[in-house]
């Protein structure tokens, strides 16, 4: 039998289009479990896409120059939410099932002239599907970037509202439990993907925000940390001294148990290379992401004051910069100094500790000068200084700790009413 002309083939394709659509839906039902498990509304939408593919093939066969319109013809009938519920892999399975049905129907006919057009069209439709999903992914990436910037801005400004948890969930935030904020300078070439990979390797998640010359990372652990030794929080009682003298941030792994999670300072050290030159400051730990604005305020204040510290390490904890932050006008640092140093000394059952520390610092950290002012033996001064170290965690005989303690005494004295200030 002679091969059909193109006009006869088109007429035959239009005649069997309904048959092909019915056979395609049955093939989807029989071979694709995800299609069978879909709600009726979604299945109907997928069926519309399959039918549109058959109609588009007939139009393409009539005019191959219509290739640029394939994506619009086939996927334009699908509702927008279908792209979110059907993956690219499932879409390619749908295309394969449709093409197989058409090929089988053509094979049963005596005219084999459609086999090559089917192969060409299936290639074009596969590329069109990939293009649709690539555009959707790009749009979602831009939206996620804008949403992430909005969330970071809300955390930095402290203007968190009821919508913040839902926005965080929309970003796919994997962290839960404690959070800390890391602030530094923005590098000339920011590699966001590398920062995220590094965080994932350390079982952490990050939100990244660029504030002009500042790079802000909100860090959360992907797994909750429980048990002793998880490190101080921003709201913990004013005990224990500076972070470097606190107990280890993570418990030691027991023999045969899982390895301990890295502390926030360990995570910050791994992320430090992603920042530009200049200081990198880690804010204190807070219980959750909604409370991250407190850590952000401390980190930003520390970032502004870190230039006053010679040879500051990268990263440096914001609580290691309490005197500099207080001098720069940070009220949170002033409150922390009072609560952690001045108040424990003022309320201690041995009032001579506060008087001894004042005298020791005012006399240039001289044991003999302090002893003469207080009419005690220098060994008594040594004993009291040791008790102060045990109580606060800061050592008055260390130059840096002495500076922190002196700043705390000054701030505490300023905050107290006139009648209870120390007598000179």
From TrEMBL:
List the source organism: Amnibacterium setariae
Region Disordered, as annotated, extends over 226-263
Cross-referenced InterPro entries, in alphabetical order? CdaR-like_regulators, CdaR_GGDEF, PucR_C-HTH_dom, PucR_C-HTH_sf
Bias (Pro residues) occurs at 239-250
Pfam families attached here? GGDEF_2, HTH_30
Which intervals hold domain CdaR GGDEF-like?
A: 157-301
Instruction: Kindly provide the name given to this protein in its UniProt entry.
Output: PucR family transcriptional regulator
Similarity section: Belongs to the CdaR family.
What positions does the domain PucR C-terminal helix-turn-helix occupy?
353-410
